[in-house]
Amino acid sequence: MTMAGRMPEPYGQGSGANLADILERVLDKGIVIAGDIRINLLDIELLTIKLRLIVASVDKAKEMGIDWWETDPALSSRARRDELARENAELRERLARLDPDHELEAREESEEES
Q1: CA distance 75 to 72
Q2: Which residues pair with 114 in a beta bridge?
Q3: Stretch 78-103: mean pLDDT
Q4: Do 69 and 75 touch, CB atoms closer than 8 A?
Q5: Three-class SS string for 92-108?
Q6: What pLDDT was estimated at residue 16?
Q7: Can the keyword Ribonucleoprotein be found in this entry's annotation (predicted)?
Q8: Averaging pLDDT over each range in 11-20, 44-53, 61-70, which range is the top one?
């Protein structure tokens, strides 16, 4: 007495379109998933983790005021350049405070090269 295993239904033409429609709708509207994890021992809170997940398109995220990736040097080449320029200016200021004569010499050399 053998029981034939039930085979999953093959994916039809409509299922791919449905998935695409659902994904487009989620990215267009956005979805928020929120939750908290608390670990207690004898009514003493040991650990609380708050999880927040937003799934949306870049355009929708910008509409909501979320654009942190544009200022994160790890994700944006413009932010990386801005950070390097700021750091360079700070280092030049520190060097000028430590050795004012060095800054004057550096300016004279750059003028001679021009």
Answers
A1: 5
A2: none
A3: 85
A4: yes
A5: HHHHHHHCHHHHHHHHH
A6: 57
A7: no
A8: 44-53
Tokens 């994916």 label which residue? 11
State how far the Cα of 100 lies from the Cα of 88, in Å rounded to an integer: 17
Spatial neighbors of 66 by CB under 8 A, at least 6 apart, are 54, 56
Measured distance CA(100)–CA(69) in Å, rounded = 38
63-73 per-position pLDDT tens digit: 888 888 788 88
Distant-in-sequence, close-in-space partners of 60: CB < 8 Å, separation ≥ 6: 27, 28, 29, 30
DSSP run (H or E) holding 37: strand 31-41
Residues 6+ apart with CB under 8 A from 80: 73, 74
Tell me, rounded to whole angstroms, the distance of Cα 114 from its chain centroid.
41
